Structure formats: structure tokens, C-alpha cells
Amino acid sequence: MAVRRRPSIPNQTAAPPNPDPGGDPQPPNTAPSLDQFSLAPPKLGLILSVLALFLIPFFYLLFVHYQVESDLRYYISICVALSLVGFVFTVGLIPVAARYLLRRNMFGYDINKRGTPQGEVKVPETLGIVTAIVFLVVAIVLQLCTLTADSDWLVEYNAALACICFMTLLGFDDDVLDVPWRVKLALPFFASLPLMMAYAGHTSIIIPKPLVPYVGLSVLDLGVIYKVYMILLVIFCTNSINIHAGLNGLEVGQTVVISFAVLIHNLMQIGASTDIDYKQAHAFSIYIMWPLLTTSLGLLAFNWYPSSVFVGDTYTYFAGMSLAVVGILGHFSETLLLFFLPQILNFLYSCPQLFGFVHCPRHRLPRFDTQTGLLTGTNDMNLVNLFLRLFGRCTEKSLCIRLLIFQALSCLMCFGLRYILAGWYK
Amino acid sequence: MAVRRRPSIPNQTAAPPNPDPGGDPQPPNAAPSLDQFSLAPPKLGLILSVLALFLIPFFYLLFVHYQVESDLRYYISICVALSLVGFGFTVGLIPVAARYLLRRNMFGYDINKRGTPQGEVKVPETLGIVTAIVFLVVAIVLQLCTLTADSDWLVEYNAALACICFMTLLGFVDDVLDVPWRVKLALPFFASLPLMMAYAGHTSIIIPKPLVPYVGLSVLDLGVIYKVYMILLVIFCTNSINIHAGLNGLEVGQTVVISFAVLIHNLMQIGASTDIDYKQAHAFSIYIMWPLLTTSLGLLAFNWYPSSVFVGDTYTYFAGMSLAVVGILGHFSETLLLFFLPQILNFLYSCPQLFGFVHCPRHRLPRFDTQTGLLTGTNDMNLVNLFLRLFGRCTEKSLCIRLLIFQALSCLMCFGLRYILAGWYK
Q: Could you mention a single GO BP entry for this protein (chain A) (predicted)?
């Protein structure tokens, strides 16, 4: 469950809280001075290419391939524009926030570089708070631009904002106070409560056709059980991203891949459907996913290998909650779960260690060899180590890329699966 | 603007971050061990008496004096019951959270006790976060109990939750990172944005009858200007509580007095009116004010003189936002401002110092005399010092009580004023 940082609580780390152990001329009581610290420049070239790689197919589908109503096209374009503004603000605010976080002793050491000079650098933590706050402001402003005061979607939008905001608050509290892991597990439950109230949709599921003779019904109304399912979905999405972590850029990277898959899915559903409510549900999801995508890319500009900032549980909880919220309020939670396939596999594979049947160390990370610079897989039961054991040793960056390619292929496969099965399944 | 704490950032305080300056047997790097720290017991006798003092007149008005519909009585009673549960949780969680906050070096020294042994004690800071989180959970659960899924009030309720939650998040980020004061001022603006969208009410004001001949209209529709007024109200409520501070228990105490006045006002309006929407607006306010009142009393149990915890900007922003939100969504913002009269006076009197015309020290606090244990007023331009100059030196506890009595009398006077003027004014 641990994210890849050394806890920055003084009595749990080997390094003294005093930032000048070598007896610098600075008085021993000062935290790193604000003037001395400067962040490595963001990897904008990479990030902007990725962004272009997303924008081109998205706009192709929106304007060329599908016949979408012009007002919906207009709102979606505004959404993208505001999200890009959010991207810029995220990139601009992260260095500022990093200085304040470092001054407050919220930092970690990069465990996967231990033994090299980079392993001694204090990396600012919890920069996910910048992403979350910029996201919330963009989402609120977007609401002002796209929804009228009497729209039916206002309830859902405000409930979504309340949930995501509450999750961010609890996640940030966790990063600051380092709460026990049992409390960590329960936090998403509380944050999802506004959603339980606002969810005014159907609570029935469609039984897959092959199972109808056995179940006896074609549509099953789950009622309260559906709400329990929703809560479980929220708890799963938040925590599964949190445990599929440990490499520079993995947490943000997987979120970026999944949210882009969700965006394409939303657009395809809008293009293929004629039901107004159905289109509105997917448009709603787009209004939340685009800000998530661009603010996450802004964070990734600093968090991609080699990380100059760490994201904190604030980010993984915020991202997981945002994804769960759109899946629930957009009524496509089953498809969302298909996109989460690597996370599901990672969770299932991790179960023995998570539940204590197999010994679970504090960090289930690979072993770093300082001489070759490569990671070697340990026997820990998660995807990170599994990939190392299956495909051999490699650098941290290649491993992360491999896992993200796996995430992307998985989403592609799910698209294919969904469309092949559509006739047979529903 | 400063709340009464020494900044706990190591390079700004004279005391070293090392918790064992005297060279204790503990290793010099250890933060205060979780086992050693224990909070003074809460002042439950005082707080429960105050609570009873509130409950008795409230229930008298609700069940005896006014003819209120039975379902509304039922919902309000549920609201009070859940709020009392919230009180229990707040009192239970504060000692737990205090240990984690202290471990994270979030503490301050009590400046008004400097020179005495109590001035050396590390007082945990930012316990307002416990109040805010318990409040949010109670408010969400209350929503499940009192509103149906298709109620018109769902939008307003969720917008209120989103605002209060966002304000708490920004307030907590401020307490952790200690942002510059210009940013502090702007935070309530961002947090109030969901409210701007959800406010679907009238944006016109009723011109006082005596002024009608001059204005030429009896009702003036302000439109967008009303929304600006709402934003200013939010910024005012949050920051005015923040600057009317500096004594043990003053911030929470004033909030408790104001919210109780609001509750009585709400009940009186429900009792005196027959308009369904109007009653619903005031019921909505009750559903938010009761949790605020009880969770604040839970905090006051520890924060009352002598404070064993400090509340942080998290609390003052959270409380200010909650009060502004009910005033706006309940459509009684003018009455709310009347209750804020001491805060208005304090703000106006403080203006020369706040705007730099007169020199403004970091803390505009009275001078503490260690030998007599009394506070003496300085020439700082705020109510705290003014009271000392007008009424003579006294202990911190008496001064706080005097200021709270002033707050209560001012609310009483506003009740009287409102009812005397009702015929003449409207």
C-alpha cells in the first residue's frame, strides 16, 4: 500500500531532520532556505507531445467522424480550452508549492535510486495537492460556462465536486498526518457519501444474455445493493491506483492512460447514440475527465522519470475518486472497470500479501543495483515485480513505460471486447 | 490577521525544532513520542452546560411556542440528534488528531502566557480540521435523512457542501504551508464559486421605505452585482473571524454565539411564516448550523481557557464559510451581517493597521504581565485591545468572556432592532 517515499517523519527515518548534517555554516535550526531550492525544469517536450497525441484523435472524432450537435461541440471545446489553461497553471504552480512543501519538511527520498547521488536528494512530496486544487477550480469555472442555473445536472455536478473535494481533503490530511492504514482504507467511503445521495439513476443491471435462462430475469434491480457496489467501486479505484505504484511516474501515468481511454469512450458513445440523457451523461464525464487529464499531465511534467516531485496519497485518492465519480454518474462503471484491468490484476495478485497470508514488507519494491542502474524483481506479488521477473531486468524508466504500454493495450483490448460482445452480451 | 500562534516553521521561531533542548536521554532527532503526549481533559462540565442552555430555548420554541409542521419538527429533531453524535465524535477524535498533528510539528506556543511555564508548552495546532471533517460527515448523513432524491434543495445542499469542503481544504493547505497573506485573502473567493452557480434565488434587494422617494424604486434588481456582494460577504465572514482572534477560545466562542443566534432566528422565521419556500430556506440553514454549533462546542471543550489545542486558520475559514453559506442560501444575509456587528466594528477599527496607514505588528496582541497574570491593552486598533483600554486590565479568560458577552448582547440587540424596524423598514 505504500507509495514510494521514505516517510518524512523524523523519528522514522534514518536521516536526521536537520537539513545540514555536515555542519554547514548555516545555523542548524533552519529548514532548507526558500532561496536555495529550485526544481528541475519540467519535461515539457515529452508532455506536450503526449498532449498533442491525445488532442488530435479526440478532435478528429469530435468534429469529423461523428455528427455531434453544434452546442455540444461548443461546450466540449470550451472544456478542452479551460483544461489547457489548467495545464499551464499546474505547471506554473508546482515549483512554487514545492518550495513551501519542502520548507514544511514534506519530502521523501527516492528509494529506487538509493546508493546513487540522486538517492540523497530531498524530493518534495504531495504535489498532488496542486493538481487537485487547479482541477477543482477549472471544474467549477467550467460548470459556470456549460450549465445553466436550472439544469438537471447541477445536482450531480455539485455532488461530484463535493466528493472529489472531500477526498482531496482527506488525502491531504493523510499525507500530512500519516494516518494508520485501516483509516486510509475507510477514507474513500466517507468521501463518497455525497454521491450516494445524488445518484438518482437506475440501480438495475442488465443480465448478460447467456445467463438469462439461469437467472430468470433480463433486468435485475439491485436497489440498495447497487449503492453498496458504488461505494466498493470508489474504495477500489482509489486504493488500486495507490498500490500499483512505486516507480517514477507510474501513478500519474496510469491515470493519464485511463482518463484518455474514458474520454474516447465518452466521445464514441455520444457519437453513436441518439438518447439525449445518455449523451448528457457522457458529456458530463468529459467535463470532468479533461481537467483531470491536463492537470495530471502538468504534474507528470515534473513527476516523470527522473521525478523531481512526488505525488502523495493526495493524488492517487483524488484521481481514483474522479474516475469512480464519472463512471458512476455517467452510468458506465462496468466499462470503467474494464479499463482498470491492470489495477484489478495487480490487486488480485497482491491479495496474499495485503491480507497477511504472505509476509508483506513496508515497500514492495524491486531491488536497485547501483552498478548497473537496473531494477531486479523481488518475490513480492505485484505487477511491478512480476514484469521484472517475466521480462528481465531493466531500468526504472523502461519498466514504467512497459507497464503503461500494458495499461494502454489493456484499454484497447477492452474497447475491442466491448464492441465484439455488444451484440452477444446485451 | 495573525491567529495567536508562534509560527511552527523552524526557521522562524526562536525555539529549536528539537523537542528536547535540555539534552534529555531521548535521541535528539525524535519528535515528541506518541506515548508521552496526552491532552488535558476537555472542559465538559462547562460545555455541556452551554449546550443545555442552547437546547432548552430551542426546543421550547420548536415544540411549544410555535406551531411547526410535524414533519419539519421531526427532521429538525433528527438534525439535533445527529449533531449531538457529531459532538461526541469531535470530543473523541481531537485527542487522537492532536497527537498526529504534534508529531508532524504542527504546534504553537501560547503567546499570552509567555514567561510562565505554560508559555513553554507545545500546543497542537489546526485542530479545526477535526471539527470540519466531523461537520462534513454529519452534514452529509443528515442530507441522506432529511432530503429525498428529487428535492429542489439537493443542488443548494451539495453546492454548500462543496464550498465548505473546498474552503476547509484551502484553509488546511494554508495552515500546513503558511501561504502569503495576499493568497490567504483570495482563498475564500475560489471556495465560494460553487455557491455562485447554485444560487438560483432572487438577486434583488428591498429598498428601505424611507429611501424609496430618493431611489425611485421599491425593489431593486442587482443581478450580477448581487453575486459580487455574495462573494464579498464570503470573503468578509471568513477573514473577519480570523482577525477577531488572539485569546484562548475567542474564535470558536464567537462562532458558537453567532450560530446560536442564527438558529433562533431561523426558528422564529419558520414559526412566523406560512410560505413553504421561505420555511424550507430556514430549515436548510438549521441543518447546517446545528452541526456547526455542536462540532464547534466539541472543539471549544479543548480550546477554552486555558487552551490545550489551537484551532488554526482551518477553523476560522471553515466557520466563516459555513455562516456565509447559510446566510446566502437561506436568503437572510442582511440579518447575518447584523449578527456580525462586533466583527464589522473590529474590521473597521483595524483598517488603518490592515491597510498600512498605521504600523501593523505581526501579532496585534495585548501585553501579558507575568507577575499579575493580567493583560494590558496596547495601542493596537482592534476590539481586544480596545476593551482592555476602556475597561481596564483583566485576565485573558475574563477578557474573552467580556468579548463574548458583547457578541451575545449585540445579537440580542439585532433581534430587537429587526423586529422594531420591521414595520418601518420593509
A: dolichol-linked oligosaccharide biosynthetic process
DSSP tag of B341: H
Task: Residue B317: name the closest of B235, B407, B397 by CA.
Answer: B235
Buried b (16+ CB within 10 A) or exposed e, A118-129: ebebbbbbbbbb
A144's grid cell: 459556470
The phi-psi region of residue A41 (left if phi > 0; otherwise alpha if psi is between -120 and 50; otherwise beta) is beta
- Predicted confidence (pLDDT) per residue in A272-305, tens digit: 888 888 888 899 899 999 999 999 999 999 999 8
The three three-digit cell numbers of residue B224, written as one number: 450580477
Report the C-alpha gap between B328 and B163 in whole angstroms: 12
What backbone phi and psi angles, to 5 degrees, belong to B388? -65, -40
Contacts for A152 with CB less than 8 Å, ≥ 6 apart: none
- The torsion region of residue B246 among left (phi > 0), alpha (psi -120 to 50) and beta comes to left
pLDDT at position B69, please?
85
Residue type for position A184: K
Q: Is the peptide bond before B306 cis (omega within 30 degrees of 0)?
A: yes
Residues A424, B20: Cα–Cα separation, whole Å: 70
Distance CA B8, CA B247 (A): 18
Mutating which of B131, B173, B227 best tests the A interface, going by the most A Cβ atoms within 10 A? B173
Rounded-to-integer distance, Cα B270 and Cα B69, Å: 10
Estimate to the nearest angstrom the gap between the alpha carbon of A193 and the chain centroid: 20
Query: Are A84 and A294 within 8 A, CB to CB?
Result: yes
- pLDDT category of residue B28 using cuts at 50, 70 and 90: very low
User: CB B197 to CB A173 under 8 A?
Assistant: no
Question: Which residue of chain B comes nearest to A180, CA vs CA?
Answer: B100
Q: Say if residue B34's pLDDT is above 60.
A: no
State whether residue B177 sits within 8 Å of chain A by CB: yes
Q: Which three cell numbers stand for residue B146?
A: 432529511
What secondary structure letter does DSSP report for A209? Answer: G
- Contact indicator for B270, B279 with CB cutoff of 8 Å: yes
Residues forming a β-bridge with A220: A205
Do A166 and B136 count as a contact with CB atoms less than 8 A apart?
yes
Cα separations in angstroms, B27 against A10, A14, B20, B24 = 11, 12, 9, 8
The pTM assigned to this predicted structure is 0.85
As given in the structure block, the three cell numbers for residue A188 are 474513500
Provide the grid cell at B194: 460553487
What is the C-alpha to C-alpha distance for residues B252 and A13, in angstroms, rounded to an integer?
37
Q: How many residue pairs from chains A and B have C-beta atoms closer than 8 A?
A: 143
Residue B369: φ, ψ to 5°: -100, 115
CA–CA separation, B117 and B10 (whole Å): 21
Nearest to B169 among A105, A172, A196 (CB): A172
pLDDT tens per residue across span B93-105: 999 999 999 988 8
Residue A42 pLDDT greater than 60, yes or no: yes
What is the spatial distance between Cα B304 and Cα B299, in angstroms, rounded to a whole number?
A: 8
Q: Which residue has the higher pLDDT, B275 or A253?
A: A253
Predicted ipTM of the assembly: 0.84
Average pLDDT over residues A208-219: 69
Confidence of residue B26 (pLDDT cuts 50, 70, 90): very low
Backbone angles phi, psi at A108, to 5 degrees: -145, 170
A-chain residues within 8 Å CB-CB of B128?
A: none
Chain A residue with CA closest to B101: the answer is A177
Alpha helices in A147-199 (DSSP H): 153-177, 181-191, 193-198
Q: Which residues contact A224 (CB under 8 A, 6 or more apart)?
A: A203
CB-based contact B363:B247 (threshold 8 Å): no
Q: Shortest CA distance to B38 belongs to which of B397, B309, B313, B312? A: B309
CB A143 within 8 A of CB B197: yes
